[in-house]
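Q: My labmate handed me this sequence with no annotations at all. I'd like to see what the chain might look like in three dimensions before we decide whether it's worth expressing. Could you predict it?
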Amino acid sequence: MKKILVVDDDRTLRTILSHHLHKQGYQVNEASSGVEALTAFEQEPPDVVVSDVMMPEMNGLEFCRQLRASRFGQLVPFIFLSAKGDLEDRIKGHTIGGDDYLTKPVDPRELIAKIEAQLERSRRIHSEMVMLMQHLASRSPAMPLPPAPEKPLLEKERTVEMVSTQPVDLPLTPAEARVFWEVIQGFTNKQISDRLFISPRTVQTHLSNILNKLDLANRSQLVRFAYENGYRLPEPK
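A: Here is what I predict for the chain of 237 residues:
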């Protein structure tokens, strides 16, 4: 069962959204601020985050920024749901790390469609990553794929295994980290530009900074570095 974290200081709205999401078969956790949401995320990482922008203690933008700066929060789909619907507000939400931005009031059916689209995107990304790693492994005997487990892992065992094999943090800014994950999935600068809502020149600037910081010469070396150091997407649940 996929897990959705709904973050909003409006209890009535949280209740309504949770009701519709439960009807669609999702498990829903709730939080009323960014501070609560960070704690909830650490305790039980969700498959998708849906967050308001204007909240007490910590607003949604800061919550998203801190989440994207953490190792485990870089890839989780993040959907803003806000009464602030001006173009500049939407651009800011995407720039800081949001994958989608919906304006209140929202039809729950549209939100569910957006959530399902993000889950499907995550599934495709994982599939493409696996194929890329298999391709690289076939070209380089020095890069064997990890052996498959002899028996299916229990959910608790899978969680322990994933945490224990997480790589160390990279010396990258949050913006550079997002470009890093896009590059190692095989996307071009233009595709990354469209996906992250930044210019191709900005993508290239981040990529150059990444290569310099990791002492690498090109994209191919970056992909090899990512594989050899354990930077791989977790398997979909």
